Amino acid sequence: MASRSKRAKRPPSAAIAPLKAAYFNRELSWLAFNRRVLEQAMEPRNPLLERVRFLSIVSSNLDEFFEIRVAGLMQQMDSGVTEPGPDGLGPREQLRRIHSVVASLVEDQYHCWHEELRPALATEGIHFRTAAELTGPEANWVRAYFREQVYPVLTPLALDQAHPFPQLGNKTLNIVVSLRNPDAPGSDPLVAILPVPRILPRFVEIAPAGTGPRRHIFLSEAIKLCAAELFPGYALASAHAFRVTRNSDLYIDEEEAANLLVKIEEELRNLRRGAAVRLEVETGIDEAVFSMLCNHLELAHEYVFRLPPPINLLRLQSIAELDRPELKFPPFDPAQGSALADPARIFEVLRSQEVLLHHPYDSFTPVVDFVEQAARDPQVFAIKQTLYRTSGDSPIVRALIEASRNGKQVTALVELKARFDEANNIQWAKQLEEAGVHVVYGLVGHKTHCKICLVVRQEGSRMRHYAHFGTGNYNQRTARLYTDLSLFTSRTALTSDAARVFNALTGFGRSPSFRNLLVAPYNLHRRIIELIGREAANAAAGRPARIVAKMNALVDKAVIDALYAASRAGVKIDLIVRGICCLVPGMPGLSENIRVRSIVGRFLEHARIAYFENAGGEPLIYAGSADWMPRNFFRRVEVLFPIVDPVLRRRIARDLIPAELRDNLNAQELGNNGAYRPVARRPNERAFSVHAHFISAAHGRRSAGP
Q1: Per-residue pLDDT tens digits for 313-325
Q2: Is residue 131 in some structural domain?
């Protein structure tokens, strides 16, 4: 891929004297990403129910942010940590700035719901009622629903000297009520809490058998309307919903955990008892009750958010699933017409060529077919598979179980510590073990995040290896929503390294050697810095030099410093970073040759790709599972695989990367002040969406057939 401009000459030595590098704060950069998600919810050109979906994602993202990142900063504060990070901010100052940014973000989120989306939904015949807005017949229906479906499973918990404050589950819905005794008008109000079981739907359709517009009410509104029925003899003074977010990080000393699976199960049970890190409560709550909640949860007011109802907009995800196709993105079916369209010929095809799929535009079906064919093929002797996140009805897990029952040697590396998927992965691990699969949990102290499947097949007198390398999880559901790459190969140089990866994961090996794969925690970090340095040397020598890197997050200081050095040497650098970016672009004398853009749109940009110009020779292109973060380089097992085949290299260099850099519809560019701005269009330049571009290309391939 040619450089986008004429190669700059090396600046004079005085201009490249060491400068003080600048870094954005990781947490604030992440919040800027969540702001970009919110902007998709506020974007009128997006279909209405898709905007609702984006709004729910904002809430989901904030939940995880508080459970993990804010919880970690609060722990640092409690431990007396004051040392600042590369950005110069210590834990206390980070928390102060986070509070300010989150307060603004949440205010805009609720404004989007109440002032934009809720009225727009009503226009489309989808209404949301508060308790105060119910008509007489609607209120009667809600009361009947409450008595039949809700009342039987609620347990009121009084708060007094005989009834201590209850242990409230993480992110559960609760109603706090204030009660008065009509026979003692001057007495202090009584307080009780109604924990709402997760099994109850968080909003219901009013009189669903009726005709006309669809009317809904949030469960919290229904409970507030009817809560007095749980306290006969008392008058309901007030009722307000609230929700507690708790520290949800796992604390596991793997050296001391004889059985990692059992230890993680214990920790999952303890999560509900984690320290509170956030309180969300409805506005209008009595100040005495509010103070009581804060005191019992031991939360300062900066970790408390008073919000208009409803609490927890994540529940709007269900609204986005309504059967209203005219209010959603047009349906899209991935292209099936790859060289692997015929499952029976997969191994035959891969003996003669490598195949690269670009999901979700190319179907994920060949990935499933690859494992299923291996499970049933009598010539296949062994299958080795990594599983980080997978779906609840995973056909790949079923295929591994079938393969084991067919007498094949099957090894599954299940990452039990995949955050928020721990419980699911424990269940899969047990099912696999019961079927005779060798289940292992990887390296002590490291998460296994790489995506590899290796198949060993006897062909004549030799054993041949086939491999699948991916940038995304083995999950057929998210494969329709995330943009990822899949490489299928029988190239010995790659399959031999894949075998070494599995040997390192299942056995012992202090320093395994990899000839072609870049593997963390072994050689990935060093090689990325070396490749960046080689481009800098090429630019300094007047040779063509360019770097394009696409990832979810850029945090590692050493890599950022290497990119700064390359920029100052004259390398033109384009970074496509969806989420966190701690590098500051466009700084004179430091990073003026670096551009950073983020694309947030219909699909979640998830593929990690690194392109190095290589002095005008064949470019070096890698793809894989690793973001450029310390955790990926040093605390995870990651794999970047080279794209060697010239045809596949051209596909990435001449189509995929240019399309990403051409997007001017959903792309935003990062300024050196930390703000993101929509990519500016030239006069008469047409709007271009990388997602729409590849959907159109997939339609063309599907029409052409295999």
Answers
A1: 999 999 999 999 9
A2: yes
Which of 455, 482, 513 finishes a domain? 513
- Binned at pLDDT 50, 70 and 90, residue 165 comes out as confident
Q: What is the dihedral of CA 14, 15, 16, 22, to 10 degrees?
A: 130
Which ranges of 12-161 does DSSP label H, i.e. alpha helix?
26-42, 48-64, 71-78, 91-111, 118-123, 136-145
Q: What is the CATH number of the domain that holds 672?
A: 3.30.870.10
Of the listed ranges 54-63, 116-125, 184-193, 269-278, the least confidently predicted one is 269-278
Residues 528 and 486 in one domain: no
User: Measured in whole angstroms, how far is the alpha carbon of residue 325 from the centre of its chain?
Assistant: 25
CB atoms within 10 A of CB 675: 11
pTM for the model = 0.90
- Residue 433 is predicted with a pLDDT of 85
Domain-ending residue, one of 496, 513, 530:
513
Mean pLDDT, to the nearest integer, of 388-408?
86
The catalytic residue among 216, 240, 449, 691 is 449
Is residue 482 in a domain?
yes
- Is the bond preceding 310 in cis, omega lying within 30 degrees of 0? yes
Q: Is there a catalytic annotation at residue 449? A: yes
Q: Within a domain: residue 332?
A: no
Q: Are residues 463 and 365 in the same domain?
A: yes
SS3 assignment, position 673: coil
